[in-house]
Design goal:
The chain has 177 residues and is of the alpha+beta class. The chain has a single domain (5-170), classed as Histidine kinase-like ATPase, C-terminal domain (Heat Shock Protein 90, 2-Layer Sandwich). The model is unreliable at 122-135 (pLDDT under 50). A hairpin with a 2-residue loop joins strand 4 and strand 5 (96-103). The N and C termini lie far apart (38 Å). It has a five-stranded mixed β-sheet with strand order 2-4-5-7-6. The chain contains five helices and seven strands; from the N terminus they run H-E-H-E-E-H-E-E-H-H-E-E. It has helices at 5-17, 27-45, 62-79, 110-113, 138-148, and strands at 23-26, 49-53, 57-60, 86-93, 96-103, 152-157, 163-170.
């Protein structure tokens, strides 16, 4: 699932332009699809995947929101510690569909975490894996997609190490209203 820099830039441009088709989409189903897609990577790295999927219907682009889940899960697998599972949780909170992806790992500096969603940001303090070439856009793409859906991406260092990524997207709304 290595994304080329050109392909990532084209995706960002598409998101920035907006105007993508939207429909009701259940984040829990997107999470299940992403887990199935990335299961070979998880197995190769010896990482357990745990999914807690309560129905969490949002209104947006199924393909773009699917990319959000896939990017977050892939980053968690690549940058996490194999001794701890990667968890994916979905639920609804009033008028917001919520997706949370967490991994264990080294304790992260909050100032580095604050830069993870910036486009093309590759600080020297970033944790990088030589077995996966990265273009510095994974979290930036997620942030752009989530923002284009009227939502919010929050990245936070876990006190025990690793990262917690939380996506909040407005729930299914009637486009005719």
């Amino acid at each position: 699932m290595r994304g080329s820099s050109v392909g990532s830039r084209l995706l960002l441009a598409r998101v920035d332009r907006g105007g993508f088709p939207q429909a009701s989409v259940d984040l829990s189903l997107l999470a299940e699809d992403a887990v199935e897609t990335l299961l070979p990577l998880a197995e190769a790295r010896g990482v357990e995947l745990i999914v807690h999927g309560d129905e969490s219907t949002a209104f947006g682009s199924p393909s773009l929101l699917g990319q959000v889940v896939l990017n977050l899960l892939q980053n968690a697998l690549i940058h996490g510690d194999a001794t701890e599972p990667v968890t994916v949780t979905t639920h609804r909170d009033d008028d917001v569909a919520i997706l949370i992806v967490e991994n264990g790992g080294e304790r992260l500096d909050p100032t580095v975490v604050a830069t993870l969603a910036e486009r093309f940001q590759r600080g020297t303090a970033r944790i990088r894996r030589s077995d996966h070439e990265r273009n510095g856009l994974g979290h930036a793409i997620v942030g752009a997609i989530v923002g284009a859906h009227g939502g919010e991406l929050t990245l936070a260092a876990r006190s025990t190490g690793g990262l917690r990524a939380t996506v909040r997207v407005p729930v299914d709304i009637d486009p005719a209203s």
